[in-house]
Amino acid sequence: MTRVGKTATVQFPSRVGVWWNSEPWPIREAQGIARDIEALGFGSLFMPEGGGKDALVESAAFLAATDRLVVGTGIANIHFRIPIPAETGARTLAALHPGRFVLGLGVGHAPFVEGNLQGSYRKPLATMRTYLERMNSVPADIEQGARPARVLAALGPKMVELSGELADGAHPYCVTPEHTATARAILGPDKWLIPEQAVVLGGDSDDQIRRARTHVGFYLELQNYRNSLLRQGFDESDLQSGGSDRLTKALVGMGSAEHVAASLTAHLDAGADHVVVQIVGDGPTSDPRPALRELAAALQL
Questions:
Q1: Alpha-carbon distance 179 to 12, whole Å?
Q2: Mean pLDDT for the stretch of residues 152-171
Q3: What CATH fold (topology level) applies to the domain 16-198+259-299?
Q4: Cβ distance 275 to 264 under 8 Å?
Q5: How far apart are CA 112 and CA 3, in angstroms?
């Protein structure tokens, strides 16, 4: 799916992709999973950057292992690398794989940046603006014409606005379809909007809610997400004790493969160009493929 009129071209084979934490997996095994994701009909593979591996290097490995799959960073942390090599590295991947690479960028979280990286976490919006302006200063003749789509991990309205001003769109995480509709209204029609949607498949209802609450509870420890959820219409009572049932069910698609598929299409109906599904398992080394096979059949990919 190539959207005419977008500010940067991305050639998604389909409108549903995958968000998968590949960092715990040996890279050759991870490449095999990327090939399976492509064969199932999913249009993309986005991966996070939590400090274990370099997301741009992983992206290069997944692009080399596949033929049509779009690969994106979801997200590359701007505190990990200075702006110039971030831009030139992304251009290099775009030159080698035209229309198949999306550079997702984010400011990360204060406890991680200041603790693990011993960096400085101040004024995320201003920090991101300065970073993007420095990226834009790279001369056009470096990998001339190779311009990857650049999207921001935008949650609040001001970061969404910046996504439209200095980037090619937004890649929101841990959001409802209502957030997607709001982001689309801010961005307008000509910017990419690629939200993530967590889902649980397999097991009985008690097991599904257990996995979903464990997943959601992790993000409730991070102030960025707490603030985002309050803006999305939840209240402090929803954010206690690992998250209320109301919160968990709003953020995680559960039930049959058909119910889960509906949680993805809800984002598309709300204005997303592409949605990436995260399979919530019992840990970071859970194999996402069994659930993805079920979901691909339900979506008729």
A1: 22
A2: 97
A3: TIM Barrel (3.20.20)
A4: yes
A5: 36
pTM score: 0.95
Q: Which residue has the tokens 């019992």?
A: 282
Torsion of CA 7, 13, 19, 22, to 10 degrees: -110
- pLDDT by residue (tens digit) across 48-85? 998 789 999 999 999 999 999 999 999 999 998 999 99
Please report, as a single letter, which amino acid is at residue 3: R
Q: What is the pLDDT of residues 195-240, one digit of tens each?
A: 999 999 999 999 999 999 999 999 999 999 999 999 999 999 999 9
173 residue type, one letter: Y
Q: Tokens standing for 217?
A: 């509870």
Give the pair of three-digit tokens for residue 94: 């775009």
Beta pairing, strands 275-279 & 44-47 = unpaired
Enter the tokens of residue 70: 């779009």
Q: Rounded to the nearest 5 degrees, what angle is found at the Cα of 273, between the Cα atoms of 39 and 101?
A: 55
Alpha-carbon span 169 to 19, nearest angstrom = 17
Task: Report how far apart, in Å, the C-alpha atoms of 63 and of each of 57, 93, 109, 115, 134 are.
Answer: 10, 8, 28, 32, 26
Task: Give per-residue burial for 28-39: e unless 16+ CB within 10 Å, then b.
Answer: eebbebbebbbe
CA distance 62 to 171: 19
